[in-house]
Amino acid sequence: MAGTLKLELVSPERLFFSEEVEMAVLPGGEGDFGVMGGHSPVISTLRPGTIAIFDGSSVTVRVFVAGGFAEVNSGGCTVLAEAAENIEDIDRLAVAQALDKAREDLRNASEEEYKGVAQLVAIGEAKLAAIDSPAYD
Length: 137
What we know:
By secondary structure, the chain is an alpha+beta fold. Helices cover 28% and strands 44% of the residues. It has two domains: 5-87, ATP Synthase, domain 1; 90-132.
């Protein structure tokens, strides 16, 4: 299809998404960025956040990723996510409870544990933001 981009989203468990899309907005390490057909080649880290997949001006799919990497080249965009899940499938109460526990663990974390626990807090906060304040809707 002209004007589209092949988007592949891979998590450690499976090929999560593989379709031609008009545009996708990714949560880059330096800020959100959009990719469309013909995008310049780029490799970027991804922070915990939402991948918004567009059809025209409407978001058709919203996927939470816990971080990872994205590569855009002439063949399309490949996302290697640390974890991925459809935002509609996320249990808000479970995320809030896990975030409360992670924040408590962070307060008591040793120097060696701190970075890993801080990442759990960042992921929990980003999940709640994705559920409560959907961007690009």
